[in-house]
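Hey L., structure's done. Input below.
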Amino acid sequence: MSQVIVITGASSGFGKCAAELLASKGQTVYGLCRRAMEHPSIKYLSCDVRDRSQIQSVVSRIIEQEGRIDVLVNNAGMGIGGALELATEEEIDLQMGTNFMGCVNMCQAVLPHMRKARRGKIINLSSIGGVMGLPYQGFYSASKFAIEGFSEALAAEVRGFGIRVSLVEPGDFATGFTGSRRNSEATLGDPDYGPIFKRSLAIIEKEENGGLQPEVLARWIAMIVEKRNPSLRYVVANLEQCLSVVVKRILSGNQMVSILRGYYKS
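Output:
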């Protein structure tokens, strides 16, 4: 039986690849994004995940047409690079509002329908940056750490209603995320932070551009959708990054900070 799947941030990258793959498998896929999109197999709807009224309107429309939502994939996200000290209130609000509150807003809108049905899956896109704090991507990491804690708590709260929650933690992938990252002008122009940030940013972009293809992550999402009892966490990354997650659990905090400083030359 075809499942009704809602994917946020479905205009590019992970969201677009996952939407296309799931639609090719015969699933009913609604792709949510801010700009107008058309696809023969995907039902695109315009929605900003920071706007609760838009979300409620879109969710109501899907329920009216389909009668249910079986799977929610919270993929919408963005990145702002720069020093934590110099981040503006607008930059912080945009980063946390899109990545974290966007996830919260969607869950709160969809969960009443899943609870009523006593079944459903929620797949939240976190990151390796949600497992360890990445220098000069601090508020991005903070937004993903927040998703981690939120998802753990949510999984415990809704499992009794037949709802499963999974976190997907991608490493470096070659997507449009790199090109669309916003970088702090204040950091770039700062005499202390600026040179270090530029050096770190070059490493970050090189790793991302040489990373895995988004189709790899799309296949993992499809697997979770099809799995009867998926796990809470899935790390999807190259071997080195998978090992770094294991190492993070073993080393002291100071040791991990030293490793991150060395890797990103910060």
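The chain has a mean pLDDT of 96. The chain has ten helices and nine strands.

-- N.
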